[in-house]
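Project standup — Tuesday

K.O.: blocked on the structure for the chain from last sprint. Re-posting the sequence here as requested.
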Amino acid sequence: MKAVVLAAGKGKRLQPLTLTRPKHLLSVGGRPILGHILAAVDSAGIKEALIVVKHMKEKIIEWCSKNNFNLKLEFAEQSDFLGTAHAISVAEDFTRGEAFIVVNGDVLTNPLEIQGIIHTHNSAKPFCTLGVKKVENPYQYGIVSVKNGLVETVIEKPSPSETFSNLISTGIMCFESSVFDIIRQTPLSNRGEYEITTTLKIAISESKKLYPTRSVHGGLISEGRGIF
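H.V.: unblocked you, prediction finished:
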């Protein structure tokens, strides 16, 4: 299975740290966030990864060229900052009609998390296998509701009064190649983005199966709101 790492964002809420470098190259524990992600992807047994870039892309490509991973790395540029679903759509040619795993470029994870999601996806063959995690303030993220072992709905950053679950998406998910057809149906959100949460809701409305996989070891950084 191939991996798609989303590393196009600006990281505005991490300024001034991100005025001179992309957030994906900020150091955590003596290593850039992207370094942790690629090491986890590598150790999980994945051999090929596409990094979707945009903001300060040259710095990300240069850093990757100077660091050794047992991964065949490719890069693709997102045309504009149009949301996660749009960023994933850039990977259609790279995935070549096969299932693939997506990792947001601002999360901390480890090989066990990635392997667990891949194992669930390969075993159940749903439309999507979604990494989820319990947190104290879920309204800051994409909230996930689970019923009868399936994802029932996903809502992106609701207000605290609209919060209905303490489960959030970890930003790690496996997709079947049919996701690109659903992305093409995804409308712009009120924020002017093509959001993957909207894509998932369309898939659910079409009775496609979304399997949740509970995160035990991993954590999120996501714009500076650390959960470890």
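K.O.: great, moving the ticket to review. The longest helix spans residues 111-124. The mean pLDDT is 87.
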